[in-house]
Amino acid sequence: MSISHYDVVIIGAGMVGATLASLLSRSGFTVALIEAYKPEPFDTEAEVGLRVSAISPGSAAILEQAGAWQQISTQRSRPYRRMQVEDGVELDPLLFDAPQFNLQSLGTIVENALLQWSVWQVVSSAGLVDIYCPDQLDNIEFSTQQNHVSLKSGKAITASLVVGADGAASGVRKALGIRQDHYAYNQHGLVAVVGKHKPNPGVAWQRFLPGGPLAFLPLDDGRSSIVWTRPSAESEHLLAMSTEEFIKELDTASSGWLGRVESCGPRAAFPLSMRLSESYAAQRTVLVGDAAHVVHPLAGQGVNLGFADAAGLVESMISVRCEGGDFGSATMLQKYDRWRRSESEAMAFGMHALRSLFNLDGLSPLRRVGLALVKRSWTIKDIFLQRAAGVGKNAPQLARGVKLRDLMQR
Ligand SMILES: Cc1cc2nc3c(=O)[nH]c(=O)nc-3n(C[C@H](O)[C@H](O)[C@H](O)COP(=O)(O)OP(=O)(O)OC[C@H]3O[C@@H](n4cnc5c(N)ncnc54)[C@H](O)[C@@H]3O)c2cc1C
Q1: Looking at domain 185-272, which CATH architecture does it have?
Q2: From the CB of 165, is ligand 1 less than 6 Å away?
Q3: pTM summary value
Q4: Ligand 1 centroid from CA 23, angstroms
Q5: 3-state secondary structure of 10
Q6: What's the rounded mean pLDDT across residues 74-89?
Q7: How far apart are CA 149 and CA 129, in angstroms?
Q8: Per-residue pLDDT tens over the stretch 214-225
Q9: Does domain 4-80+104-182+274-409 correspond to CATH entry 1.10.20.10?
Q10: Of 40, 50, 107, 114, most Cβ neighbours within 10 A?
Q11: 94-128 pLDDT, tens per residue?
Q12: How far, in Å, from the CA of 167 to the mean position of ligand 1?
């Protein structure tokens, strides 16, 4: 049996893995992409999906270089120029407006299904990536020159670099024996599509309530996609109640914002946790996206961190290749690990601290001082915003607007 060899084998074609495949193949690397399930074609006539993501301007720039943003931004997606944060105790909301930070928008709300389908279409239609789907990782044999990957179908591949983009339960991470710190929040994120009396004017609104934040993210048609973080037992109760009862609860929780809740579609809830891997790279293998880190969704950063991993990896690989080096070498892996792990950990702990601050009793002096500081300090707001927008000083160049072809010419 002949064994195909690639520069890179990516396990997992979720939003992050497929984007990485597109960026790498457009940079001239040979790529194999292994995915268990082919995504469903996105149907613009179907009801809005329950899973949406707030895509940062930095991620939009990365997706543009991957060839997918044009299709995403002209379909069912909604940019937002204002973020409004309320703490349920203080009267004045905390406002972030895009122009104050020299940004056109603070982000774009996109259905995950549209994102995944758009990137999948790019990689499958360009003919630059060999896709093995449906297929699954069976085993990896690590060695110094190249890794041997065997698939459940019986096929075998070799690669100079293997990438685990296979989500939170990553088999690649397990094969590497990389340990993870896992912090279960004992909370669920309840999601639904909700219509209020007034249409959402393009504002990402979030109110911190005892037990967890409630977010309304603007959709294309004036409705909002909500993420309501609740203690797990309570979220089960909210899922089980009738639509009318649920609307009453949601009305109370979001009172004063755009009038009454007038419609609510099906609901679902996802367990929330923080998972941080002790390393993101070893033995000619790297981890990207949820395979490497899972963060609390309160600032909508999970997949954005994953896109930054993908862009950071491509940037590092192009630079090593330009210098005639080995992009699977221990030096290259260490560089990627240090860079991306420090960024993700800073974000994960930032979310953790913010969550803890808002979880303090409303009258707690620490909470009052913390919030007053965030409100008054332009520096804190600016650092927070630059990071959330994915364009901070440590962000990959692709996120900061540099084009792939310019990276290759440097
Ligand atoms: C309630 C909630 C709200 C969220 N909101 C936001 C938000 O607003 N913004 C944001 O940035 N993030 C958000 N997130 C986080 C975001 O959804 C995740 O970070 C993102 O989906 C991770 O993408 P991924 O491609 O890394 O992994 P996944 O989406 O898990 O993809 C992994 C892929 O690998 C495949 N796979 C797995 N194992 C194998 C194998 N052995 N062989 C072959 N294929 C395999 C799977 O089929 C899958 O396609 C939210 C999360 C939750 C729970």
Answers
A1: 2-Layer Sandwich (3.30)
A2: yes
A3: 0.93
A4: 18
A5: strand
A6: 89
A7: 17
A8: 999 999 999 999
A9: no
A10: 107
A11: 888 999 888 899 999 999 999 999 999 999 998 89
A12: 5
